[in-house]
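Issue 218. Parser rejects a valid record. Input:
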Amino acid sequence: MMSVDFAGWSSAHQSRFEDVLRGLLPQAEVMPQRLHQAMRYAVLDGGKRVRPLLAFAAGELVGAELGRVNIAAAAVELIHAYSLVHDDMPCMDDDVLRRGKPTCHVQYDEPTALLVGDSLQTLAFQLLAENTLNDDARHQLEMVKLLAQASGSRGMAGGQAIDLESVGRALSLPELENMHIHKTGALIRAAILLGAHCGTVTASQLNNLDHFGKCVGLAFQVVDDVLDAEADTATLGKTAGKDADNDKPTYVTLLGVQAARNMAGELHGEALSALDEFGDAAQRLRELADFIVLRKF
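Output the parser choked on:
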């Protein structure tokens, strides 16, 4: 039995991980100061840290050293933060609020925000390259490859490109799923696999963890679409109803709220089934799946 409940476990990791990020990011007084200040602004003191929590849970499942998972989780979170900075810019979604505070390009300026995203992305790969995350170099190279694929044209960036091309279009459910498997799901799957690669893991376990990640990644986006339609800006910490205002296809516009909730529930069940092989050891991943589907913000 786990001695700490999920709320305590996640809160402890979130607090500790904030200190990890503070130490890994360039200090604000180091030249170029404005860029480094903006990088810290974009990353620190905000967000649910779902991706790092998934990495920590997967790492615990396979007995990985916490220090190693810290680096893998940070690399994923830096990629995620860079994607949000770029996503909010006027050339993309043109949003002014993120994590309850002005977006990076509003707080600083557009050129600085562009460079923040570029710098956070490269720092992520620097961290993967300069730290020992697995005693077998082949596993570490696989980790670099995993994050690169999850971030690039066959992952997050590709999903964003599809998203931009889909404005004003009526997508089918398979088309919408394909977009979000890339835009949102790829980085969530990568977080889980990177955490697992920090420990000892079999090919079968990786396959099951990847399927779990695919299901919770899609569920995360379905719930996000429901919340965007139902919650207010203060609750979300970002502009509510933005997708509808921009005429973007969502699970709510395609299916309706209740059917979208039902879909999230089905994905939740499939995700939990993927963890059957692990027994009680996967409890934290199960709890994270519950949080992703049942969250209110």
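Fixed in the parser; the record now loads. The chain is about 70% helix and 0% strand.
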